[in-house]
Amino acid sequence: MRKITFFTVCLMLVQLVGLAQAPSLIKKKISDYPLVDGSKLPTEAGWQLRLGDEQKEGKIEITANKELFIKAASGEAYTVQVGKSTETVFSPTTDYTIEFKTKVPLNNGRGLDITFRDGKNFAKLVCVTHNRVILNGEKEALAHLNGKEYHVYRIAVERDKAKAHLYIDGTYKTSFDLLAKANSAWLSFGKGNTKADTEIVMQYFTYDLTGAYAPL
Predict the structure, then answer these.
(1) Strand runs (DSSP E) across 42-118, as ranges?
(2) Mean per-residue pLDDT for 130-159?
(3) What domain range is 66 assigned to?
């Protein structure tokens, strides 16, 4: 008979709590329709380059393996965005889902920044680094992982509830609150922190504006 220790009981309770927190969402695969991948540069796929004041443009290229490679040294940035009036439209009116497959081989700052606003709510910067996923400015990480390897990240957003759910490689990790504020809808990804050296490799980035979906 297996010996039940205090540690085992605590571990079981933690696992049960984690399961209880997972949202009840419809499952759907959305990676079959990438809006950005290694077939063309984001600016050729209807995304706009977004640079802040005094930011120098970093480098982006398509690798031999059909990946997007973003490289930006200190003082450089490379961020692309879509919104209501861009060629690729991001204008949620209901729940929605964001998904991307990426790795961050090098960073000494925030790594890959993801920003989204949906007309009702907005999220703090979601940052994927070489070893964790964080909300910019928050002390506790959303997840810890080896970000130097490829992972599939999904953010399923329940718009009316102002709630976002994070999945990594098909597994639910945590949920976080969005901040309520009416504003123009837009979505961006890239390297926005100029006080860092960063390398980002991405296989695809996509979103689905028909609902908040768990991975299939």
Answers:
(1) 48-49, 56-57, 59-62, 68-72, 76-83, 96-107, 112-117
(2) 96
(3) 26-208
Count the helix, strand and coil residues of the chain and give each as a percent rounded to the nearest 5: 10, 45, 45
Give a yes or no: residue 93 inside a domain.
yes
| Residue range 23-44, pLDDT digits in tens | 999 999 999 999 999 999 999 9
Residue 54 has pLDDT above 80, yes or no: no
Instruction: Please calculate the CA angle 66-69-70 and round it to the nearest 5 degrees.
Output: 155
Q: How far lies 10's CA from each of 5, 14, 143, in Å?
A: 9, 6, 20
User: Which residue is it, tokens 């490679």?
Assistant: 69
Task: Name the phi and psi angles at 172, rounded to 5.
Answer: -65, 135
| Count of domains for the chain | 1
12 in a structural domain: no
